[in-house]
Design the sequence.
């Protein structure tokens, strides 16, 4: 145990006694101060932090018990040893109840106080270690919390339904869940929401991407192996089933799971027992499976790429997340959320969002769904140097069927961009005609289109 120099305050109205104790403790290498009245005591406490107070319970002017209560409240990390006289047993009991760590009865021997202080010292040391570990632990958990993105933004009916279903799934820990939706629609977030809202949230969330595991290692990755069961198995190893025990096994891109493994997975789910590769012991496992795919599973079943029996096991509850283009109401809240998110992350002031931008985004197809919007916003936030985020800051590719409506523009550049778009639109994207209409040369139109990232598109796109 590394020795810390305890700082001690002695509060006792008997000056001689206090001084003698001080001297004794100083020799023992404590940093000691004395006070003879409650007033002096509190003054001293205000001046510097103490680890320990030795408090005489019988003081003139103020009850020692009252002082004890106050200092425990004001300086909770300081311990208090009380000194009592004969016949003070009731007071001693009360003092211990009020948080004193020990008591000494006058007259006492030096060895008594020494032992008492050593006990306190040990306690303080352990307590501080404990607090340090606790702090580290909470730091780690806040760090993890930060990494676990659990904000699922959206106001559309379909997103509200998704969240309701996720809530239901969280309540039923034995229910396997299948989450479907195009790439970037947020399947993994929903899986995490379910896990972390469930009673199992303190157990592992083990995410496995079936397509990322190499075929030859698949079985041992899932089932684990015992040392020596194959070349390279130098140690015993837990597989995903064991790692996820008590929690959630998230099987991402389930359609990529090889057909033979699907049968083994099914058996493990049904029996809740597994054997490690090369092992003989049966290990009982218990986990919930949340599977995700961006494929149309029924089609895969028809083409015999996916087992029907496994499918039935997995989709007790199916949650489908529709593509972003089908829920334009979610664009604005998502945009605001990401703008805010990246302004914090990039340490930039929060820009205004131009209304025209929201409209243009609603017209955009978003093949990469929310992930694409998020990346767009990140890029725009990096390059945007104005107070307002507008279409110019976004690289929008093909748009959906509808026309981009042109609203009131807020600044000159936007006006310019809008005029160009309007002209192009009216001329069916014929550049020569549009340039004429705008009263500028064709080259100059092309330059401006480049500047504003306007790509030539046909209305039917
Ligand atoms: N509704 C939403 N609210 C906030 N962020 C979202 C939302 N949907 C998706 N995202 C974000 O989009 C990104 C992609 O989400 P996620 O990885 O969950 O998608 P996915 O459906 O698993 O995609 P893939 O099929 O490609 O694996 C993540 O950064 C996620 O934070
Ligand atoms: Mg995913």
Sequence:
């Amino acid at each position: 145990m590394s020795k810390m120099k305890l700082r001690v305050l002695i509060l006792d109205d008997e000056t001689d006694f206090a001084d003698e104790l001080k001297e004794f403790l100083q020799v023992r290498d404590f940093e000691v101060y004395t006070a003879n009245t409650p007033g002096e005591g509190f003054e001293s406490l205000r001046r510097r932090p103490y680890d320990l107070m030795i408090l005489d319970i019988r003081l003139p002017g103020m009850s020692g018990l009252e002082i004890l209560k106050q200092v425990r409240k004001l300086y909770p990390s300081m311990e208090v040893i009380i000194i009592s006289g004969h016949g003070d047993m009731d007071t001693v009991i009360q003092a211990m109840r009020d948080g004193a760590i020990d008591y000494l009865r006058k007259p006492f021997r030096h060895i008594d106080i020494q032992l008492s202080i050593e006990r306190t010292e040990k306690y303080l040391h352990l307590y501080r270690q404990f607090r340090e570990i606790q702090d580290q632990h909470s730091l780690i958990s806040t760090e993890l919390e930060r990494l676990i993105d659990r904000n699922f933004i959206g106001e559309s009916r379909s997103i509200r339904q998704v969240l309701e279903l996720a809530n239901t799934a969280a309540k039923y820990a034995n229910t396997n869940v299948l989450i479907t939706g195009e790439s970037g629609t947020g399947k993994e977030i929903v899986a995490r929401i379910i896990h972390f809202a469930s009673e199992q949230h303190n157990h592992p969330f083990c995410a496995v991407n079936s397509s990322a595991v190499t075929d030859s290692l698949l079985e041992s990755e899932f089932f684990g192996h015992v040392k020596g069961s194959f070349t390279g198995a130098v140690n015993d190893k837990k597989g995903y089933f064991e790692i996820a025990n008590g929690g959630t096994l998230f099987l991402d891109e389930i359609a990529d799971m090889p057909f033979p493994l699907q049968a083994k997975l099914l058996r493990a789910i049904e029996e809740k027992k597994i054997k490690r590769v090369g092992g003989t012991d049966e290990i009982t496992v218990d986990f919930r499976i949340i599977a995700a795919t961006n494929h149309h599973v029924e089609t895969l079943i028809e083409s015999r790429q996916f087992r029907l029996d496994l499918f039935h096991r997995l989709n007790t509850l199916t949650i489908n997340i529709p593509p972003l283009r089908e829920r334009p109401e979610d664009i604005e809240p998502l945009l605001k959320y990401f703008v805010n998110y990246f302004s914090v992350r990039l340490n930039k002031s929060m820009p205004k969002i131009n209304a025209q931008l929201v409209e243009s985004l609603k017209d955009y197809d978003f093949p990469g769904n929310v992930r694409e919007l998020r990346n767009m916003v990140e890029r725009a936030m990096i390059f945007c140097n104005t107070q307002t985020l507008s279409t110019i800051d976004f690289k929008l590719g093909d748009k959906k069927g509808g026309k981009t409506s042109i609203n009131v523009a807020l600044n000159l550049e936007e006006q310019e961009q809008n005029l160009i778009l309007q002209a192009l639109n009216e001329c069916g994207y014929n550049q020569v005609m549009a340039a004429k209409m705008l009263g500028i040369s064709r080259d100059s139109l092309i330059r401006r289109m480049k500047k504003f990232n306007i790509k030539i598109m046909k209305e039917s796109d």
Observations:
- The mean pLDDT is 85.
- The longest helix spans residues 110-147.
- Residues 166 and 190 are 7 Å apart (CA to CA).
